[in-house]
């Protein structure tokens, strides 16, 4: 079934993961005559609830600090009866993990409406307290792993200040402590893996510049030992909001170690900033102080670029995890990628039509002709951070585009750049849990400006989904990013670690030069 198992480490990762799973839930169809374009078996596992009803829950293991789960419990409407039943044999029927009691937290109105079948009230940045407040799916009890971390390791009262949990080594220590007591991979991950028939691999969502990066690095060590040949995609989330000098330097050091360690453990490593770099397009209405907002944008990009890996093969060629990896790492070692996207309101056009009906087939292919070789255009939302930028346009080695809806003038391969494009009419859904971060001008019928025949427009969110174009690229920009980090590491890291970290970064950066850059920074100064 080509299953993919997901690992989520940390609060920001779970904000993004919640949007991801809500989007998967929105693809379910409940009419016997209508088949979803998405193969739900890839990300969801069938099961049986305590009352005998069939269930479908995400193939995911979610790690977070206990206080970040909010009102989400290990037991829910599908599994709570099991608490009172006798333990049964088998890894899925074993007694749930015992959790320490927590003080009751009032349930969010959004969750109350979902429980009662009512219309959910609108969410806002101020009303969302936890990632569980806007969750729309049921999880198996084994998916939720709450970690009890000493108070001294929790975040500082002032978000600009450095806290112990901002340090890489604290995450490593937390993993080793928990693993020594519970053998985390055997307890949490193995049950999900052993029930898969033809597993594609793992997608790992983790913080890349805090303690969760250290936790993830130790976890991936064990994962590679146990499942070494499986694909492992790591999405490294980076904080881009302003911070105090000490905290910012610690984030840079952690990010450098993620490029050194997580990238070497991953089949593909995708750093993803929570705030886009450069000037944002006018249609993006993002509240940078809201994790609900920033994670929604990240999720829209990541969910869209990975869509080919879960589409039904009967609707056209599927782009598996290994297919993506071959695009970037065949005969080279360029597994660090940059992500970018653009989006538009699909109400301004009609989708592709075949024989009078919407064509639900997915197409992919590589253009072979090279009439006018040039670098592919940059999309208007970029998720890569830059410590320093080159004065000349970076060169793209390889790129994958995923287009949802109708797009014209797509880039083609050239002698210098290999481009593969996947196209599908399946739009990005906008469930009620998704914030209105995308807004487009729409004419108010019958409304005109005072004393003018010019129509009046208002900015509104799309109502029928979002057309997106998302790209993953391997380019010389990675070299410039890593060189910038290496320079900072050379100045601020202690002698014992400095040379090893700096030399590893420079070695990684050289993979993204290959004759397109002399390796000198003289042009960048």
UniProtKB/TrEMBL annotation:
<feature type="domain" description="DML1/Misato tubulin">
    <location>
        <begin position="120"/>
        <end position="311"/>
    </location>
</feature>
<dbReference type="InterPro" id="IPR029209">
    <property type="entry name" value="DML1/Misato_tubulin"/>
</dbReference>
<dbReference type="Pfam" id="PF10644">
    <property type="entry name" value="Misat_Tub_SegII"/>
</dbReference>
<dbReference type="InterPro" id="IPR019605">
    <property type="entry name" value="Misato_II_tubulin-like"/>
</dbReference>
<dbReference type="GO" id="GO:0005739">
    <property type="term" value="C:mitochondrion"/>
</dbReference>
<protein>
    <recommendedName>
        <fullName>Tubulin nucleotide-binding domain-like protein</fullName>
    </recommendedName>
</protein>
<dbReference type="GO" id="GO:0007005">
    <property type="term" value="P:mitochondrion organization"/>
</dbReference>
<keyword id="KW-0496">Mitochondrion</keyword>
<dbReference type="Pfam" id="PF14881">
    <property type="entry name" value="Tubulin_3"/>
</dbReference>
<comment type="function">
    <text>Involved in the partitioning of the mitochondrial organelle and mitochondrial DNA (mtDNA) inheritance.</text>
</comment>
<feature type="domain" description="Misato Segment II tubulin-like">
    <location>
        <begin position="2"/>
        <end position="115"/>
    </location>
</feature>
<dbReference type="InterPro" id="IPR036525">
    <property type="entry name" value="Tubulin/FtsZ_GTPase_sf"/>
</dbReference>
<comment type="similarity">
    <text>Belongs to the misato family.</text>
</comment>
<dbReference type="InterPro" id="IPR049942">
    <property type="entry name" value="DML1/Misato"/>
</dbReference>
């Amino acid at each position: 079934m080509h299953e993919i198992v997901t690992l989520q480490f940390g609060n920001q990762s779970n904000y993004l993961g919640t949007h991801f799973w809500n989007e998967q839930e929105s693809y379910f169809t409940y009419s016997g005559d209508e088949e979803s374009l998405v193969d739900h078996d890839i990300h969801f596992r069938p099961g049986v609830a305590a009352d005998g009803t069939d269930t479908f829950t995400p193939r995911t293991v979610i790690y977070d600090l206990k206080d970040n789960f909010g009102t989400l419990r290990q037991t829910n409407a599908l599994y709570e009866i099991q608490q009172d039943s006798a333990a049964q044999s088998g890894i899925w029927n074993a007694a749930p993990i015992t959790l320490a009691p927590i003080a009751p937290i009032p349930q969010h109105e959004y969750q109350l409406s979902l429980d009662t079948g009512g219309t959910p009230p609108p969410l806002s940045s101020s009303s969302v307290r936890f990632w569980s407040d806007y969750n729309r799916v049921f999880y198996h009890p084994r998916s939720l792993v709450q970690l009890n971390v000493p108070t001294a390791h929790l975040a500082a009262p002032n978000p600009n200040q450095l806290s112990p949990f901002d340090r890489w080594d604290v995450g490593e220590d937390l993993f080793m402590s928990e693993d020594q007591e519970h053998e985390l991979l055997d307890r949490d991950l193995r049950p999900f893996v052993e029930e898969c028939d033809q597993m594609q691999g793992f997608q790992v969502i983790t913080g890349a510049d805090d303690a969760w990066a250290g936790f993830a690095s130790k976890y991936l060590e064990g994962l590679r030992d146990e499942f070494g040949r499986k694909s492992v995609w790591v999405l490294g989330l980076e904080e881009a909001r302003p911070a105090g000098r000490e905290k910012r330097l610690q984030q840079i050091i952690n990010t450098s170690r993620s490029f050194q360690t997580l990238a070497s453990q991953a089949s593909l490593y995708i750093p993803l900033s929570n705030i886009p770099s450069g000037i944002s397009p006018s249609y993006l209405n993002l509240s940078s102080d809201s994790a609900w907002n920033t994670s929604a944008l990240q999720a829209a990009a990541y969910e869209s670029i990975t869509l080919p890996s879960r589409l039904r093969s009967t609707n056209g060629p599927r782009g598996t995890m290994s297919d993506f990896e071959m695009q970037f790492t065949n005969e080279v070692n360029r597994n660090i990628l940059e992500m970018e996207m653009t989006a538009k309101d699909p109400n301004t056009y009609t989708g592709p039509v075949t024989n009078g009906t919407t064509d639900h087939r997915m197409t992919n292919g590589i253009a072979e002709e090279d009439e006018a070789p040039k670098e592919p255009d940059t999309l208007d939302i970029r998720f890569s951070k830059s410590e320093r930028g080159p004065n000349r346009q970076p060169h793209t080695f390889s790129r994958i585009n995923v287009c949802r809806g109708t797009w014209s003038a797509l880039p083609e391969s050239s002698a210098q750049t290999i481009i593969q494009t996947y196209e599908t009419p399946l739009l990005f859904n906008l469930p009620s849990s998704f914030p209105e971060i995308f807004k487009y001008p729409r004419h108010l019928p019958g409304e005109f400006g005072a004393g003018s025949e010019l129509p009046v427009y208002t900015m509104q969110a799309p109502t029928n989904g979002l057309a997106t174009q998302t790209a993953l690229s391997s380019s010389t920009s990675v070299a410039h990013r890593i060189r910038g980090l290496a320079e900072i590491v050379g100045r601020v890291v202690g002698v014992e670690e400095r040379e090893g970290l700096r030399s590893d970064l420079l070695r990684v950066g050289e993979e993204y030069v290959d004759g397109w850059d002399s390796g000198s920074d003289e042009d960048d100064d």
